[in-house]
Amino acid sequence: MSTTTGRRRQTLTVQMFSEPALPGCATTADLAALQVRLEAGGIELIVGTIVDMAGVIRAKSVPAERVESFHRRGLGASPTFNAFCVDGAGIAFTPAIGVTGDLRLRLEPGSLAAIGDQIAWGPVEFFDQQGRPDPGCARGRLRTVVAEAQIAGVDVLVGSELEFVLTDLTGERLTAGTWLPYGAAPLLACSAFHTDLLRTFTAAGLPVEQVHAEYGTDQFEISLPPAPPLRAADQVVLARVLLGRVAGRHGFGISFSPLPFVGAAGNGAHLHISFVSDGQPLLSGGSGPHGLQPAGASALGGIVTGLPEFIAVLAGSPLSGSRLGPGTWAGAYACWGLENREAAVRLCGATPGDPSGTNIEVKCIDPTANPYLAVATVLGLALRGIELAAALPDEVAVNPSSIPGDPVPRLSHDPAEAAELLANSALAQQILGGRIVESLLAVRRWELAAYAETPLEDMTVALRRVWSA
Ligand code: GLU
Ligand code: MG
């Protein structure tokens, strides 16, 4: 794909390799071809990102001529990268993560994308000094879960919704007066931002499905179409990087906080997932509820019953509980239902009007979740559901809060309780591995202690921009 961003014509092709090349190495010929393309595209800097346990995007970069070294040998990084806390100062040391040791951050060259200003972005993974994948690496863990899906013969697609709030450059509100949710006026008032966004995404090889003005004041949403799991998580990170750059060009700040302003609508990071096995979609064409195949019903059952243990992963920041409430369409209830926007898990059906395929939307996730761990969690739960032929809980076909006696449990909206649920979860050990659970819990507990006495208002201000790139 050619791009025309910046002063020079850039010709960097994203997704150069049909498959991501890690954890083995890209061939010398592929890397030489990449180097030529980088030069032809005028790329000067390669920025490699990881997402830490607090959901913050961190980066290291090299001059473009060092792309081969960034991929093959990697850059040194302290193991504390996976214990950094959201406050920018804290490091949640664990028995495995201390001040000694070193890891290698290796670039995934198969996912490089031109992001303008002669810069190419790519995801990186942690390896140890022997060259082995590091068990604390979120992207590496997703790769492992994807390999399990391949062994089980399940093809997976994941689509992502990114909600965000535009602010002024100091992080304060743009709009003082009335906001029109889904309004044409607020969408068109920011049309220069949106058309720049589309151009920038296209230049980076990142497709956009739709953009709209969301419910909350100054809130917008962009949807990314379905992609294989690793690619989908990479694309969420790339989208956040690009959104930050586009917002900055138009004089805006951008917030992915689950509670950008007290009393305002929260930002979600919903995922949509679907499965095919032996050419047969698992969520349609069957004799189960709403046409589910037996394996599809088990995948859905696995997700719905497992989710409560993973809230510390999916929506566990000190602000996340304030978003995860009834009446906000954030999926606060631990249940599922066809097109039920108050359920944590909404089954989106294929209909004659939209035959594109049934999928499962997991709504409780917010942008403080590491996207690699969020996808690994949802996919891992689905795979365990299929493996164990999990039963599908009863559908909740109405607003759960309207049922007398409140029989439908809520997901935990107390981050301390959510951390305990994760700490006691055998499923989390299986799906995410002990090292990731340990560092994630250490980070969550640090954050809880750090903000225990902070008034909500002050917390929203302090954390408004930390999940932006
Ligand atoms: N903003 C809501 C959330 O926090 C989601 C609204 C919607 O359904 O799009 O997840
Ligand atoms: Mg939305």
Number of helices: 14
| Beta-strand content | 15-25%
Question: Radius of gyration, rounded?
Answer: 21 Å
What sequence of helices (H) and strands (E) makes up the elements?
Answer: HEEHEEEEHEHHEEHEEEHHHEEEHHHHH
What is the straight-line distance between the termini?
25 Å
Main β sheet profile:
9 strands, mixed
Count of separate structural domains: 2
- The portion of residues assigned to helices is 25-40%
By secondary-structure content and strand pairing, the structural class works out as alpha+beta
CATH topology category name of the largest domain: Creatine Kinase, Chain A, domain 2
User: Care to count the β-strands?
Assistant: 15
Which small-molecule species are bound to the chains here? glutamic acid, magnesium ion
CATH architecture of the largest domain: 2-Layer Sandwich
